[in-house]
């Protein structure tokens, strides 16, 4: 198998990023490739814009899963790659093009060289939102093909190529999106006393939200409230009638998530009374923490440490979120970081992961599955 072809596939996928549950071209591209493989041991089923591929084992006693997310982000690419996104305003800025091409590489190997156990490849839509993992888990296909163990990776710009980073237990946080709409009374810029200005209310609210992590969360626990977007108003000399705040909440414990939300609701109520406006809070999609199974992670770290070309870093937990957490809640397994050495981080318009990491991941996971998949 020529591993360099998977960097080429990654470039093709990089050109066509699509948002969650709109991954129509991505699904068609993946299917075309998967259908070009020897079909003798494969069973393919589509689910919405996702795909399940089962590689039937020779004498299976279990099924091992590999999950790759497939959606892109609403970011305008600034990499100057020859193979930049052809979809305006959209980019694979979270490495899902890597996750898919690595999945195709591992699948290609096992379509040609099946092992004793079954393998299940899950190409999952909508990781960035609204979340594809949970509905995929509840699907009839998953009920029939549910793996006994499951693995996924995520690219890590901050680690060098050739390294992976992982830990037992909690790896990623609990997350919840946060949308707050404010409606007051707009009017002429010169007559503020006749209005309820939602620009001022929204600015106050954003500042007050910052006090929650500082004052209401146990300092030995961790939480983040990030407001990534504010929209308000129409032009410079009209007082804004409406404002919208969009953000995300991250906590290491489910208890802190409940506490943070309780405080957000109290503060929003205060702004509502103080600014005589109407408010609506919507928590959008929520993800369960990524909790790595202790025994499987330990076994994987021992295995990876024995591979000459891989450096294993025992990392800290991160406040990122991943709906793979839902899969790990039901299926023993783990997620690990794959070092890709990019000067720009995840969700950045100039993210440039090093493609040499694709080969590292394909050969590491292939060998790991070969070790695990002996009946
Ligand atoms: C790995 C990663 O970057 N995941 C995203 C998941 C986002 C979930 C949701 N849209 C939210 O913002 O809460 C992340 O931002 O951590």
TrEMBL record:
Enzymatic class: hydrolase
Keywords from the named record: Amino-acid biosynthesis, Diaminopimelate biosynthesis, Hydrolase, Lysine biosynthesis, Manganese, Metal-binding
Pathway annotation from the record: Amino-acid biosynthesis; L-lysine biosynthesis via DAP pathway; LL-2,6-diaminopimelate from (S)-tetrahydrodipicolinate (acetylase route): step 3/3
Transmembrane segments: none
Co-factor binding details: The Mn(2+) ion enhances activity.
Residues in Peptidase M20 dimerisation domain copies: 180-270
Catalytic site positions: 69, 128
Gene Ontology BP term (one): lysine biosynthetic process via diaminopimelate
Gene3D superfamilies: 3.30.70.360, Zn peptidases
Catalyzed reactions per annotation: N-acetyl-(2S,6S)-2,6-diaminopimelate + H2O = (2S,6S)-2,6-diaminopimelate + acetate
Any Pfam family the entry gives: M20_dimer
EC number(s) per entry: 3.5.1.47
Residue numbers binding Mn(2+): 94, 96, 128, 154, 347
Highest taxon of the lineage: Bacteria
One MF annotation (Gene Ontology) recorded for this entry: metal ion binding
Cofactor: Mn(2+)
Role of this protein: Catalyzes the conversion of N-acetyl-diaminopimelate to diaminopimelate and acetate.
UniProt record similarity statement: Belongs to the peptidase M20A family. N-acetyldiaminopimelate deacetylase subfamily.
Protein name: N-acetyldiaminopimelate deacetylase
Species whose genome carries this gene: Priestia flexa
């Amino acid at each position: 198998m020529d591993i360099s072809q998977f960097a080429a596939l990654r470039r093709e996928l990089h050109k066509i990023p699509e948002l969650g549950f709109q991954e129509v071209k991505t699904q068609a591209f993946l299917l075309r490739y998967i259908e070009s493989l020897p079909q003798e041991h494969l069973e393919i089923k589509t689910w919405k814009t996702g795909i399940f591929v089962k590689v039937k084992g020779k004498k299976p006693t279990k099924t091992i899963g590999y999950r790759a997310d497939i959606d892109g982000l609403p970011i305008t690419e600034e990499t100057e790659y020859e193979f930049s996104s052809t979809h305006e305003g959209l980019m694979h800025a979270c490495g899902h093009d890597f996750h898919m091409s690595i999945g195709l590489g591992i699948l290609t190997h096992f379509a040609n060289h099946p092992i004793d156990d079954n393998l299940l490849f899950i190409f999952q839509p909508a990781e960035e939102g609204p979340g594809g993992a949970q509905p995929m888990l509840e699907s009839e296909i998953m009920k029939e093909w549910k793996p006994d163990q499951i693995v996924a990776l995520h690219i890590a710009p901050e680690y060098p190529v050739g390294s992976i980073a992982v830990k037992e237990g909690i790896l990623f946080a609990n997350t919840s999106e946060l949308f707050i709409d404010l409606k007051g009374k707009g009017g002429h810029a010169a007559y503020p006393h006749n209005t309820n200005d939602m620009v001022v209310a929204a600015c106050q609210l954003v500042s007050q939200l910052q006090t929650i992590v500082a004052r209401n969360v146990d300092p030995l626990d961790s939480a983040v409230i990030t407001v990534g977007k504010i929209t308000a108003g129409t032009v410079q000399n009209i007082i804004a009638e409406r404002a919208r705040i969009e953000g995300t909440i991250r906590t290491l414990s489910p208890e802190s998530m409940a506490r943070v939300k309780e405080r957000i609701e109290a503060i929003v109520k205060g702004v509502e009374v103080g600014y005589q406006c109407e408010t609506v809070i919507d928590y959008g999609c929520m993800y369960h923490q990524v909790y790595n199974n202790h025994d499987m992670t330990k076994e994987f770290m021992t295995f990876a440490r024995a591979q000459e070309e891989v450096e294993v870093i025992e990392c800290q937990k991160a406040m990122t979120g991943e709906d793979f957490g839902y899969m790990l809640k039901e299926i023993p397994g783990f997620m690990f970081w794959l070092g890709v050495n990019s000067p720009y981080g995840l969700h950045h318009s100039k993210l440039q992961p090093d493609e040499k990491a694709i080969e590292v991941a394909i050969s590491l996971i292939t060998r790991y599955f070969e070790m695990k998949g002996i009946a």
